[in-house]
Amino acid sequence: MPMSFNQAIIEEFRANAGKVGGPFEGGDLLLLTTTGARSGREHTVPLGYVRAEGLLLVVASAAGAPEHPQWYRNLLAHPVVRVELGTEVFEAVAVPAEGARRDRLFEAVVRVAPGYGDYQAHTERVLPVVALERPAAEAEPRAVANLADKLVEVHTWLRAHLRHVREETEAYFASGAAGDGRPPGLGLQVRQHCLALCEGLTHHHTGEDAAIFPALARSHPELRPTLERLGEEHREVGRIKDRLVALLAGIGVADPQLFRAELKRMSAELEAHLDHEEAELLPVLAGIPFPPRR
């Protein structure tokens, strides 16, 4: 079977440190890997990008087609994406811009790449402008030598993202948007960041429940009651998380006040759980090398 056009570009990109020939020669190109909204499988596409206002931007233009491209629908369901930029590979949270901010960023994109203006002129849909937001780098990255270090690293990520979502939510309410008569909803920025937090939390707790906790129970049977308690905390946090995800199933949030209440509840449960887990497990995990030694 002949190689698809996109796959040929992807292979050329990876073989030549991000440089490709043909119609894209000399252009700013990246590879975006999303998770299928329904399949859960990874999908990679080459996309042009523009930098504006300190942001890395891609446009869901589909060359002016009447429907959004599949990669855009994927990132609405799963905001955490992988970006390949030259030889650099990193995770990002994909956040579509809205309202006046979207219009301003689209104008900035068109100044650099006028073709997107032509695409917009040929379709009735508003072309989404998506910011690929990288996690803020730590001033002094922590060295990870054992499983305790790795746990602290993951917990630091979770706490930072939880704090970010809370701050965005409170900023929304402080702006008065929750009571100005507009259709309810917190907007895509809060939605995408909260879904990214929930995905990271699911991945972390699933790994602990499936591998870390059973291994600790075998090697440290005295910890079994503690591990059972931590597992129950996982399930309680998971129930609240599932309610948040259900509220975020659509593009807007059906009830901002309910979202705010559930977020507050999850914040209290999650922060108490993280503190409890660190107090109980860090001394034991400090003796387990990471990555595991062969």
Structure notes:
By secondary structure, this protein is an alpha+beta fold. It has helices spanning 5-15, 70-77, 99-112, 115-121, 147-174, 188-219, 224-247, 256-285; strands at 29-35, 42-48, 50-52, 55-59, 80-85, 88-96, 129-133. The protein folds into 2 domains: 5-133, Electron Transport, Fmn-binding Protein, Chain A (Pnp Oxidase, Chain A, Roll); 147-285, Four Helix Bundle (Hemerythrin (Met), subunit A) (Up-down Bundle). 52% of the residues lie in helices and 14% in strands. It has a 7-stranded antiparallel β-sheet, sandwiched between helices. Helix 5 (147-174) packs antiparallel against helix 6, helix 5 (147-174) packs antiparallel against helix 8 (256-285) and helix 7 (224-247) packs antiparallel against helix 8. Residues 180-184 have low confidence and may be disordered.
Short recap of the structure:
With 294 residues, the chain is an alpha+beta fold.
Number of domains: 2
Count of DSSP H/I helices: 8
Shape estimate: globular
Major sheet: 7 strands, antiparallel
The CATH topology of the largest domain is Four Helix Bundle (Hemerythrin (Met), subunit A)
Q: Which class do the helix and strand fractions yield?
A: alpha+beta
**Number of β-strand runs:** 7
Q: How do the SSEs run, as a string of H and E? A: HEEEEHEEHHEHHHH
Helix content: 40-55%
**Highest CATH level, the class of the largest domain:** Mainly Alpha
Oligomer: single chain
Euclidean distance between termini CA atoms:
40 Å
- What integer is the average pLDDT? 91
Task: Using the 3D structure, state the CATH architecture of the largest domain.
Answer: Up-down Bundle
Low-confidence stretches: 180-184
Query: What fraction strand?
Result: 5-15%
User: Looking across the biggest beta sheet, what order are the strands in?
Assistant: 2-1-5-6-7-4-3
Domain Hemerythrin-like: 148-285
Family: Belongs to the F420H(2)-dependent quinone reductase family.
Catalytic activity: oxidized coenzyme F420-(gamma-L-Glu)(n) + a quinol + H(+) = reduced coenzyme F420-(gamma-L-Glu)(n) + a quinone
Protein name: Nitroreductase/quinone reductase family protein
